Amino acid sequence: MVNPQMVMYEEEFNRIQMVVDRLVQDANARVVFIVDKNGQLIAASGDVENLDTTSLASLTAGNIAATGGMAKLLKENEFATQFHEGEKANIHIQLVGNRVILVVIFDAKSSLGLVRLRVKRASEELNRIFEALLKKVQEPGESPFAEITDEDIDNLFND
User: Fold this and answer.
1) What is the CB neighbour count within 10 angstroms for residue 138?
2) Which of 21, 27, 86, 98 is deepest in the core (most CB within 10 A)?
3) Structural domains of the chain, ranges and CATH numbers in brackets
4) For the segment 30-56, what is each residue's pLDDT rounded down to a tens digit?
């Protein structure tokens, strides 16, 4: 099943960003970001200035898709957690509610145990946020585009 485009409201985005900011501190991570399964970056925190977050987000989503294919071959639903260990950097990848991907990049200043512990708590909180967002989007009459009128659209093209 293809994931529909996610609608993000400012309130939920701010809550997600707070979780990501806190996770950088709590896990002693270099970078934390959230990506949707289509590879779109939703939120990021930490030392992202020297990182190509767009490419990393895209590659992470591809990695999840490839691993999902392996899971199906092994008659598993999904591999919800992945860990990649490098010489200088490690990456912990966690599916959150089968909706988004939580990525934590860390080095020797942290440990896999600490990251896993903090990711578990953050994942639970993120899952609650995305559940509430899904309910909000599905409420009848609650369209994110409801306040846009035909006149607004005409004015946009008349400029």
Assistant:
1) 8
2) 27
3) 10-158 (3.30.450.30)
4) 999 999 989 999 999 999 998 999 999
One-character DSSP codes across 53-92: HHHHHHHHHHHHHHHHHHHHHTT-S---EEEEE-SS-EEE
Closest to 31 in 3D by CA, of 125, 41, 155: 41
For 114-149, what is each residue's pLDDT tens digit? 999 999 999 999 999 988 888 877 776 555 566 666
How far is Cα 83 from Cα 96, in angstroms, rounded to an integer?
Answer: 15
Q: Closest Cα partner for 105 from 126, 88, 81?
A: 88
Structural Rg of the chain based on CA atoms? 18
Q: Give the span between the Cα atoms of 13 and 8, in whole angstroms.
A: 6
Could you tell me which of 76, 79, 80, 96 has the C-alpha nearest to residue 33?
96
Parallel/antiparallel/unpaired status of strands 81-85 and 41-46: unpaired
Q: Are 47 and 30 in contact (CB under 8 A)?
A: yes
